[in-house]
Amino acid sequence: MSQAPDRTGGPSAEEIAALDAHWRAANYLAVGQIYLMDNPLLTRPLTPEDIKPRLLGHWGTSPGLNLVYTHLNRVIKDRDLTALAVWGPGHGGPAVVANSWLEGSWSEVYRDVPRDADGMARLFKQFSFPGGVPSHVAPDVPGSIHEGGELGYALTHAYGAAFDHPDLFVACVIGDGEAETGPLAASWHSDKFLDPVHDGAVLPILHLNGYKIANPTVLARLPEDELDALLRGYGHDPLHVEGDDPETVHRELALALDTALDRIAVIQERARVQGAVERPSWPMIVLRTPKGWTGPREVDGLPVENTWRAHQVPLPGVREDDDHRRQLEEWMRSYRPGELFDEDGRPRPEVLRYVPEGDARLGATPYANGGRLTRDLPLPGLAGHAVEVPAPGQSTSEPTQVLGGWLEELMAATAARRDFRLVGPDETASNRLDAVYGATGKTWEEKTYPTDEHLSRDGRVMEVLSEHLCQGWLEGYLLTGRHGLFSCYEAFAHIVDSMVNQHIKWLRASRRLDWRRPIASLNYLLTSHVWRQDHNGFSHQDPGFVDHILNKSPEAVRVYLPPDANTLLAAAEHVLGSRDYVNVIISGKQPTFDWLTLEQARAHCARGAGTWAWAGTEDGTREPDVVLACAGDVPTQEVLVAAGLLRRHLPELSLRVVNVVDVARLLPQGEHPHGMPDAEYDALFTRDKPVIFAYHGYPWLIHRLAYRRHGHDHLHVRGYKEEGTTTTPFDMVVRNDLDRYRLVMDVIDRVPGLGVRAVGLRQAMADARFRHHRWIREHGSDMPEVADWRWEG
């Protein structure tokens, strides 16, 4: 990052006038979007018909965002920067839309909204209007990677964007309301993970306008020395800008930006050229300006500017109230639109003096349309990592350890391109993925001790005990053109429920915009799952993240439950090559039986669900008497043990075993792209035979997915019933009635006529459960017949 010419005296009066003209134009356009649907240049007095019937939007933060956008334009143009802006106060949609229209990027993607009077009228009407664009900084807005409707994630997205983009400057505006959230508070620590050599720079701009919807903000009321100490404690070097006089604030903000960028240039030069290794104190800006600045000072006798009343629509009655409408017109004319736009509504040259050109514009940067930069990953072949399976169930592997070897090769293959990262909350080794340390270390910019392992300033494994940071970093990384994998304990993926919800909404909205290019999928590996958290207990036992995901947009979500190591490899290869999805893979890290060869696993993943003929007793001459279905590694094992018991004790029973990898296959074809046609579902599960389904998670999810199927009345699902504690692995399945003995009892109870013939076997299964309870309380481990079981097929 280069240094600009010396500006110790600050910008000249001529330069301030140009900055102020752009700022006033953006403010004018922001107000017009909230209120007007006609008469955009005020060529005649406003009438009720010019006003939108529903006034939506947020004015309070908009003048501050317009100010920052204006000044970023100047430094981008002056210094020839490659820049991206993340707008934390996403409610300030009118500001970012206004600036993208001024710079021309809006008209390039929306050609029916040109930079003239007609285009301005369309710009105003479409904002928060049916068939138009949302009020937030949504995917519809060129230059955005951050929706901002849900606050807390701006800074972590900004750092995610900067990782492995050494030439990128990311400005991040943080609203003082957003700064009160937990995720944002943790995000300040992201500077400890930013490598000045291989990463870009992030400039946090904490915008203190003092108020939220109806209350003051905490940081704005702190004494300045206390706030300064807090931010320095986070490792930043704050520059303070404060005022309500535009000329003064323009001058101080210009100086602060130049100072911050000069300091960033020095930090990067020292690290990249001189080899400095100490963690720098990165600059940031604290910008304190009035909420609703330049808007109405008073409405109906009550103060508005610099109060919470400026947050949304300061003049709520302009369509019906003549006095409000007069105030609105005076407000808009106070920006002197005749100086800003010509007779045809085009911005005048003075307004555009500091607007960059081409991809340098904030609304046109390819970093905000990451699919323009995304390259296919050099995915390694699976053959060298697959486990040998001469026969089903004769050996065991730790699936995630096998995957870790493959990920190590992927890390090595992307070492030069630096476009793949593994993130997780202090669990890479715990989740058996530590083979990756053979190719890269863990990102760490703090001091190190001789006892530390695998820490590296340029590492691409990112561990921090905040799922929010992991999620936000990875989202920012993906949205700017790279790839990644989030490894997490299953129970604690819920911490980012709301964040993944926002990302799915982003993907869904982006798919409807032809100018947005597909990005790499957001991939989760959930391990240390509910059935093997017997040692950690009830707090670590929750399989419900899948339920949350499958409630979301069907075109964007995928869930895979591979039953063994080779199937996990095949699923991982698939999801890391995909685009525009949220993929969830659930796989255990403990020794699991190997069921399928690599080729069988690939075929099984491609099908998503299928019969395991070698496990059943069908002869092909008739429908089975019962279907034993399973999804998930532990349920698969229990079903196969139950199948073995049935083969031995009821050899005349025609049994089919079905394994499901892709649970969305259970949905009807019209409800999910992976859903089965009815004929295929009926052929697999039958129309009227009992189906005993052992499922990894909460049973009602399977019922919900399959409720419209012909055989739903005959479907009986076993799964997690919120019964957990610190106990043995097998006791977890017994407590939740998912065990082999219960499954055999279910078959006996549900196959017509079998109950009377198999009463002795049913009693033996109940006795085995009782024997189990006594055994674990005496020995503290599972019975030998459980612990030493092997498939006998």
UniProtKB/TrEMBL annotation:
Q: Required cofactors, per record? A: thiamine diphosphate
> Which intervals hold domain Xylulose 5-phosphate/Fructose 6-phosphate phosphoketolase C-terminal?
589-791
Q: Which Gene3D superfamilies is this protein grouped with? A: 3.40.50.920, 3.40.50.970
Keyword presence, Lyase? yes
Keyword terms of this UniProt record: Lyase, Thiamine pyrophosphate
Q: Which CDD domains match?
A: TPP_PK
Q: Where is the Xylulose 5-phosphate/Fructose 6-phosphate phosphoketolase N-terminal domain?
A: 13-372
Q: So what EC number does this one have?
A: 4.1.2.-
Q: Which family does it belong to?
A: Belongs to the XFP family.
The protein's name: Probable phosphoketolase
**Native species of this protein?**
Streptomyces albidoflavus
